Q: What sequence folds into this?
């Protein structure tokens, strides 16, 4: 069967770590009684018609079915007085079973647990299909703005918040996937399919929540032996909190207070540059982009001078900075600057040009394009 699927190109849909199957089928348990009664009555009716009025097997099954469901089709062949009494009994039993089933359905719908579990189960299967997504923890004004930007840039994300209002907020702010859960709990991380995520963003107003979440994520990495670490972004109000969160394992810590002060001072010093960030970095339809591209150990460009790589001529992009493996940053590198192993090139250009640069640096042998430049 697996070989046939591979031949036809069929792909098995990924399953979530937590399927909620036990909870889902647990809500269906009350329906077992009417189902068992229905099968039992169908069996008794079939045997009864065959014994009383010599019905054939198929005629007995058909007569039992139309009698039990009270559809009113009548007798398919002559029935004796004993058979008619038996038919009346089947009609009464059918009405009783139908009433029991309606009562159970009404009770299940009234509780609402089945619909809630079914909705969450569907959500978990949708989340399991995501790859390289971000898990955004805690709903607030920051997360609203962040998710809007992620959506504009076509970056998948899952929002997690422990409050029951998350269902209303998800509809209002158009969260495609969301979970009501404690973000720092392992169960929530499994539901959010953190194993295939690119990173996590924690935007709680409480520093304690952010600390607990960062520690839990790093512990989750170790316990599940993941091949690569998550990129963790956090928010903090004070500079002391920024340092704490970085020491605990956050890759980037954003201080809204510091960012606001920097932006206001920049606007005061250079009013003509006021809209530079919006036009260049934050505008989703801007043709230009800027990214750091890591140079693999096996890359042909290792220990080559920057001018010898001819990146600008081949990809129409510009290297405006180089971050060495030890963290040292070289701004506006000259042509004789060496490209070292595992360094990161800060490249500016179109998205297609940046992608071409990534592919170029991943090659092990000297590319053929160098012959033409």
A:
């Amino acid at each position: 069967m697996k070989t046939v699927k591979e031949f036809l190109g069929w792909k098995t849909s990924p399953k979530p770590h937590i399927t909620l199957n036990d909870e889902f089928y647990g809500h269906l348990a009350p329906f077992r009684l009417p189902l068992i009664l229905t099968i039992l009555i169908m069996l008794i009716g079939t045997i009864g018609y065959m014994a009383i009025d010599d019905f054939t097997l198929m005629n007995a099954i058909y007569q039992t079915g139309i009698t039990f469901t009270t559809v009113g089709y009548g007798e398919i062949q002559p029935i004796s007085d004993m058979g008619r009494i038996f038919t009346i009994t089947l009609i009464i039993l059918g009405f009783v079973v139908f009433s029991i089933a309606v009562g159970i359905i009404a009770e299940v719908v009234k509780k609402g647990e089945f619909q809630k579990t079914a909705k969450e189960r569907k959500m978990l299967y949708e989340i399991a299909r995501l790859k390289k997504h971000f898990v955004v923890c805690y709903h607030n004004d920051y997360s609203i703005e962040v998710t809007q930007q992620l959506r504009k840039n076509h970056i998948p994300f899952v929002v997690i918040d422990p409050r029951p209002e998350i269902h209303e907020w998800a509809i209002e702010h158009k969260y495609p996937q969301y979970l009501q859960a404690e973000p720092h709990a392992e169960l929530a991380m499994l539901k959010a399919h953190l194993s295939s995520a690119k990173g996590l963003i924690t935007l709680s107003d409480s520093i304690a929540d952010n600390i607990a979440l960062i520690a839990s994520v790093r512990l989750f990495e170790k316990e599940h032996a993941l091949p690569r670490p998550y990129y963790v972004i956090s928010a903090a109000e004070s500079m002391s909190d920024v340092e704490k969160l970085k020491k605990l394992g956050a890759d980037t810590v954003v201080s809204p207070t510091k960012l606001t002060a920097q932006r206001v001072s920049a606007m005061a010093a250079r009013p003509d540059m006021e809209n530079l960030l919006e036009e260049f970095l934050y505008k989703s339809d801007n043709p230009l982009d800027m990214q750091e591209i890591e140079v693999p150990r096996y890359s042909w460009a290792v220990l080559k001078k920057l001018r010898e790589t001819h990146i600008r001529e081949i990809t129409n992009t510009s290297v405006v900075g180089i971050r060495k493996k030890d963290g040292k940053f070289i701004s506006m590198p000259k042509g004789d600057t060496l490209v070292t192993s595992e360094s990161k090139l800060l490249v500016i250009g179109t998205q297609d040009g940046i992608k071409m640069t990534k592919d170029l640096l991943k090659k092990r042998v000297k590319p053929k394009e160098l012959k033409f430049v």
About this structure: The chain has three domains: 23-113, 130-254, 287-372. The domain at 287-372 is CATH 3.30.70.1450 (Alpha-Beta Plaits).
